[in-house]
Task: inverse folding
């Protein structure tokens, strides 16, 4: 009998801090008369749980609808929270579709150093292999020898080809060679690692612009995706990273990683509300199969601490 936790169980563990924090912040607010002061406290509790002001305001408005004369128990509040979280997340829960023709579909993966970017590339490659796509990697983060070595190790482990160059080499040249090889060998998806040194935005912007120009000469539609990897342990700092990388790289989608139980995963909701960028997948650990497509309903229920996402019956006034 397998003892490997299910994906749902891993998600429960990954969002534990987020859920515990939310429920802790809501503790003591249930059963009270839903007057302005209590509604303010609930709204502040949601913002303090990293869910963002827009979702918090919508929950407050829902609870305020004709309910001032009645109390509302904690489960009822949490069900409303779950519904509003799902409303925020559902429009952005979009799987990464491989549709490019001609092949390959080129995916640039970006993110700050330490965000788990290189490991996430391997997990994303593994997820696509499971869907029967042929995948190739390109080690475009030539700024760090460690990034090149780590990606080579992962490529060997999951059995995919990789194109590399020397530390400090021309990233655009590596990408050019990778596209040529991927085209010649019938590869479906080329995943490109890129440098994550935000301390010099201009240098990074110039490098990414050069990569884009090279790709454009080979296929005007590429890169087809620019995926930003976010570290869930950074909480609200993840929002500032989205802001910078949108400016620098033209982000088209997000992957949230390091949901390991210490993370502040509520920032997913705030990111969805503020930027509306597709969230393709989330990662809950270091194993190669610890990345899966993002399910808004499941995540909403886990964050809110409810087993079933059903509407609470509105109290009569």
Result:
């Amino acid at each position: 009998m397998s003892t490997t936790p299910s994906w749902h169980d891993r998600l429960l563990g990954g969002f534990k801090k987020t859920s515990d924090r939310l429920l802790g912040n809501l503790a003591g607010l249930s059963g009270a008369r839903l007057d302005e002061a209590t509604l303010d406290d609930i709204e502040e509790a949601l913002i303090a749980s990293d869910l963002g002001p827009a979702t918090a305001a919508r929950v407050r408005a829902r609870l305020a609808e004709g309910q001032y004369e009645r109390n509302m128990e904690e489960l009822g509040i949490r069900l409303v929270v779950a519904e509003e979280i799902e409303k925020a997340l559902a429009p952005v829960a979009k799987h990464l579709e491989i549709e490019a023709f001609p092949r390959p579909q080129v995916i640039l993966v970006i993110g700050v150093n330490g965000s788990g970017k290189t490991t996430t590339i391997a997990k994303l490659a593994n997820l696509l292999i499971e869907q029967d796509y042929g995948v190739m990697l390109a080690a475009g983060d030539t700024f760090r020898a460690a990034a090149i070595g780590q990606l080579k190790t992962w490529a060997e482990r999951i059995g995919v080809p990789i194109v590399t160059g020397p530390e400090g080499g021309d990233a655009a040249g590596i990408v050019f060679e990778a596209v040529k090889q991927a085209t010649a060998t019938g590869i479906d998806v080329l995943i490109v690692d890129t440098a994550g040194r935000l301390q010099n935005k201009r240098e990074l912007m110039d490098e990414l612009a050069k990569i884009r120009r090279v790709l454009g000469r080979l296929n005007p539609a590429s890169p087809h995706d620019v995926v930003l990897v976010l570290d869930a342990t950074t909480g609200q700092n993840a929002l500032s990273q989205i802001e910078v990388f949108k400016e620098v790289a033209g982000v088209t989608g997000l992957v949230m990683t390091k949901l390991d139980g210490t993370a502040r995963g509520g920032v997913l909701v705030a990111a969805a509300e503020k930027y509306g960028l597709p969230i393709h997948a989330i990662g809950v650990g270091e194993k190669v199969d610890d990345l899966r497509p993002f399910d808004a309903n499941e995540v909403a229920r886990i964050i809110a601490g409810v087993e079933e996402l059903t509407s609470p019956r509105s109290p009569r006034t």
Remarks:
- Residues 308-317 have pLDDT under 50 and may be disordered.
- The first helix runs from residue 7 to 14.
- The longest strand covers residues 225-231.
- Strands lie at 105-110, 135-139, 162-163, 189-193, 225-231, 253-257, 279-283, 291-293.
